[in-house]
């Protein structure tokens, strides 16, 4: 039994997966903190629910595991790395299911190892699980097409439910596949009653989240409208397509091979709908001005098809030279990309040589403007400074149980709650924190963390407290939060809850 699993191929697969997890820890310069979104997802572990304003609940479940393990950065980084390793696993299994041999398996593993997934898998966000779950979905879809066994429909429903409970973006992948299947010979599946039983199974699994959405007035709709108004409006459609090329630039020849294989390689005719589904999904993303990384989950399966075809056309004779050349080309193309996509250099090192980052368009932020540091990197600086300064301000105030900390955004609140040594519970009217206010708390002092131009020292806040003063600010010029100010409103002399409740109600008007 042991020998059955510890074959040569499985040993190599395990080696790739182990290297993947290990390498992820080496790719972040120690000067960086966690990234803005990570703090929110980690804080969700403290507020269990079947849904959140911007996300379904699965990330919070992983966050609970991280919290149980001590909430250390090691574990924060472990899970996205693990999901990246299993993305390689499922892509490898797709190759195996398609009849690929060891070269094709190694090529798909190396393609994913030296790709944009290196960056994606450094951050505790839903994206790492998303790419893994999509790749798993394609794997079981291939198995169903091959065997027509109904059990795979139920497995697909289960995987799809996990993907949905992780991120609603799964719907775009499915939206591409459905019309692709309808216009293919595989459309007979719609006559299979087990497809609809599997659909019911899927709906049952996601029902708690749907109920949560209904009970909370569909916050995901509000979130998407806000996203479209504040961020996606700045996304250029040409930029989206450019990013698709850049993400897997070193595997572009493999993706081209996959496209050719879907058209010309007879064994892949029954899988052609997967290639067509990709086109439909990309067209939908382009139309909606989606961010480039939304589509990353579509590629591991396509690469798996491409490597099997390349293995087939390079069999025999001296064609092994082409196989060696493929590996060399992959590494050669990825090296310059690696130099700019990974936060392995300090902000000072990056600022000293901006041209490579500018050439790849990495200095353009969601506000549509160009900055001196990639946005994701700037989102990993200044948080620890902010949290420590808020902790220090908190220590200077009396009546500790009556201090409310209000921030401008979820990054600020989440970072304070993660790094605090005083067990602070900061809140904000932004994102899920709007539901996490300590309702009914007796408020005597407010610590206000703000990057707003309105200065409470000279504003209306002076009317309902004895003293208002600036207690500190984020001084790291490399931080996206540079200039964020910490104000103290001391000795509140009115009931501020009506004002807070009004703001919460306004925020919740979906």
Low-confidence stretches: none
Helix content: 55-70%
**Domain module count:** 3
Oligomer: single chain
Measure the end-to-end span.
57 Å
Strand arrangement across the biggest beta sheet: 2-1-3-5-4
Overall structural class, as computed from helix and strand content, comes to mainly alpha
Mean pLDDT: 90
Task: Identify the overall geometry.
Answer: globular
Radius of gyration using CA atoms only: 25 Å
Number of helical stretches of at least 4 residues: 23
What is the strand tally? 5
Percentage of residues in strands: 5-15%
Characterize the biggest β-sheet.
5 strands, mixed
Protein traits:
five-stranded mixed β-sheet; mainly alpha; 3 domains; about 500 residues; 23 helices; about 55% helix; 5 strands
What does this structure look like?
With 510 residues, the chain is mainly alpha-helical. The chain is built from 23 helices and 5 strands. The protein has helices at residues 2-5, 8-24, 36-43, 58-68, 73-97, 102-113, 117-120, 126-147, 151-166, 170-182, 193-215, 219-230, 237-247, 252-264, 272-287, 299-313, 320-341, 347-351, 355-359, 375-378, 383-395, 410-419, 497-507; strands spanning 403-407, 427-428, 445-450, 465-473, 485-492.
Topology of helices and strands:
Layout: H1 2-5, H2 8-24, H3 36-43, H4 58-68, H5 73-97, H6 102-113, H7 117-120, H8 126-147, H9 151-166, H10 170-182, H11 193-215, H12 219-230, H13 237-247, H14 252-264, H15 272-287, H16 299-313, H17 320-341, H18 347-351, H19 355-359, H20 375-378, H21 383-395, E1 403-407, H22 410-419, E2 427-428, E3 445-450, E4 465-473, E5 485-492, H23 497-507
Parallel strand pairs: 1-2, 1-3
Antiparallel strand pairs: 3-5, 4-5
Helix pairs in contact: 2-5, 2-6, 3-22, 5-6, 5-8, 5-16, 6-16, 6-17, 8-9, 9-11, 10-15, 14-16, 21-22
């Amino acid at each position: 039994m042991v020998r059955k699993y510890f074959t040569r191929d499985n040993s190599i697969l395990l080696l790739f997966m182990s290297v993947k997890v290990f390498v992820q820890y080496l790719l972040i310069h120690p000067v960086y903190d966690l990234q803005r979104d990570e703090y929110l997802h980690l804080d969700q572990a403290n507020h269990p629910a079947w849904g959140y304003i911007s996300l379904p609940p699965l990330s919070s479940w992983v966050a609970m595991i991280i919290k149980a393990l001590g909430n250390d950065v090691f574990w924060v980084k472990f899970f996205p790395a693990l999901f990246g390793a299993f993305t390689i696993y499922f892509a490898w299994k797709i190759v195996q299911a398609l009849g690929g041999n060891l070269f094709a398996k190694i090529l798909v593993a190396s393609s994913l190892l030296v790709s944009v997934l290196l960056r994606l898998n450094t951050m505790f966000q839903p994206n790492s699980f998303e790419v893994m779950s999509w790749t798993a979905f394609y794997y079981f879809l291939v198995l169903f097409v091959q065997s027509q066994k109904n059990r795979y429909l139920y497995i697909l429903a289960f995987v799809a439910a996990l993907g949905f409970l992780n991120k609603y973006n799964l719907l775009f992948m499915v939206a591409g596949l459905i019309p692709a299947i309808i216009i293919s010979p595989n459309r007979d599946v719609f006559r299979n009653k087990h497809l609809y039983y599997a659909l019911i199974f899927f709906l049952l699994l996601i029902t708690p989240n749907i109920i949560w959405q209904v009970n909370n007035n569909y916050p995901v709709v509000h979130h998407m409208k806000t996203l479209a108004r504040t961020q996606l409006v700045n996304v250029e459609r040409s930029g989206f397509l450019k990013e698709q090329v850049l993400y897997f630039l070193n595997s572009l020849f493999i993706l081209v091979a996959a496209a050719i294989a879907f058209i010309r390689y007879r064994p892949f005719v029954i899988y052609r709908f997967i290639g067509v589904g990709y086109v439909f999904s990309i067209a939908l993303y382009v139309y909606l001005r989606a961010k480039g990384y939304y589509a990353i989950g579509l590629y591991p399966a396509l690469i798996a098809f491409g490597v099997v075809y390349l293995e087939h056309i390079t069999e025999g004779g001296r064609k092994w030279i082409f196989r060696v050349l493929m590996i060399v080309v992959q590494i050669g193309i990825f090296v310059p990309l690696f130099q700019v996509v990974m936060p392995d250099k300090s902000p000072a090192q990056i600022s000293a040589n901006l041209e490579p980052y500018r050439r790849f368009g990495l200095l353009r932020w969601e506000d549509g403007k160009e900055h001196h540091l990639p946005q994701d990197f700037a989102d990993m600086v200044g948080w620890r400074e902010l949290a420590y300064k808020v902790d220090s301000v908190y220590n200077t105030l009396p009546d500790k149980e009556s201090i409310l900390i209000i921030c401008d955004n979820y990054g600020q609140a989440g970072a304070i709650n993660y790094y605090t040594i005083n067990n602070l519970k900061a809140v904000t009217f932004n994102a899920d924190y709007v539901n996490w206010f300590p309702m009914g708390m007796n408020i005597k002092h407010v610590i206000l963390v703000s990057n707003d131009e309105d200065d409470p020292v000279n504003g209306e806040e002076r009317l309902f407290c004895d003293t208002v003063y600036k207690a500190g600010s984020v001084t790291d010029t490399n931080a996206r939060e540079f200039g964020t100010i910490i104000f103290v409103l001391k000795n509140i002399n009115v009931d501020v809850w009506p004002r807070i409740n009004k703001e919460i109600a306004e925020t919740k008007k979906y």
